[in-house]
């Protein structure tokens, strides 16, 4: 299974320093992927034949200035879709936001995700978030706003919509001006962030327990040019997910062998919650906090907790054949479906296809967002 | 602490890739596999994996005439349904129709808008020319109307 998305965490520098940011991004963090390497990674990814999207994130990708425009243009020239994940610090006024976005739009940018919420608002005012959203929307970009969610929070989607102009646009076209509330999770040991039970990834919410869509489908390059097999919120805390030095080895060589690991395959297939549940079924003495609200928290548990690590080593071999075959059948099915997508597209049915496959028809260009919060 | 890696050798992975592709696309290979899973896997070079421990749903799916029909007729929706309900989330008894192909692993408040079949959807997206002028004009009109109606400016 080769990846579908290239995510470039271009820098861990950010204009904000949100508490519990997944990568600990702050204004003081220095360093970035050199521009020639960014362009090289895009060029390499375009040769895969499977990569469809390039996501620019961080840190704050807009800190790259004109280099970001060049990178978006390079991806566009290869026929790749592009997305920027930002906190909208640059949208000081609506006019400033339009001026900042226009070169990116001209370069072919397809989508913007804006992150906000209580933690972000300490550094980026809500007006900038709204300015950025309206400018992105008016520019025709696919747009999604991600609002931090936890039990006790003052800034919500409803608060965001209290501004009359913004609310009217959202009410008129809620699919174009998409707003989602996603959980904010603790990144430091001992930190507690409370959530409502509706978010708990346990048997009370079985629809939340599913295979990990990110691992192996996403190849991530960190500012240090590590190749990481997913863009999960806790990926920087899990050394096993950092599998190579992308500066020293071609991406295709790394990606071609990235799925030669049964645990990665298992996470992709069944997800961390099912894995822990299976391990508990084999060893009922294994304890687990079933009030986790994000799969990356559970994934971190699997890789960090000595008892779970030992259980994986002990019990996974019993079902390795099943995992391996299901995984490769799934990979084959993905390839098959992508081929069918090509056929459908050629006869001009892509729009109808997405309509059929979605509960609600997404806006043109609105790629389903990856996990963009906690950053 | 030693890394928690559980590698499979490249030759086994290559064999499984070929087997997976053939099981998806070739009726004779599917039949051969259903008749003798272990023997077929060995023919593909998969010798160190126990075929007897396969999830029954995989076998059920491969044997289902409707799956064959979906593959033969290239029905995206039907193929996807089979894949979702038989290959992913093996440990969930019943439950909602959501599986390995779900688009997003974040917790969603707006669960109903979580879309499916990203493999297909993303591909279509890349090929779609957006934004077109009609969409641009529609959005600009909505923004202009909002400002005109509300009568104030943000920022």
Number of helices of chain B: 8
Architecture (CATH level 2) name of the domain at 5-195 in chain A: Alpha-Beta Barrel
Q: Give the N-terminus to C-terminus distance of chain B in angstroms.
A: 52 Å
CATH class of the domain at 5-195 in chain A equals Alpha Beta
- Which pair of chains has the greatest number of interface residues, and how are they split between the two chains? A-B, 116 and 92 residues
Please, what is the CATH homologous superfamily of the domain at 5-195 in chain A? Aldolase class I
Proportion in helices of chain B = 55-70%
N to C succession of SSEs of chain B: HHHHHHHH
What does the main sheet of chain B amount to?
none
N- to C-terminal distance of chain A: 27 Å
Structural class of chain A: alpha/beta
The count of helical stretches of chain A stands at 13
Largest sheet of chain A: 9 strands, mixed
Rg from alpha-carbon coordinates of chain A: 20 Å
Beta fraction of chain A = 5-15%
Helix content of chain A: 40-55%
How many beta strands in the DSSP annotation of chain A? 9
Low-confidence stretches of chain A: 342-373
Task: Based on Cα principal axes, name the global outline of chain A.
Answer: globular
Instruction: State the shape of chain B.
Output: elongated
Radius of gyration of chain B: 23 Å
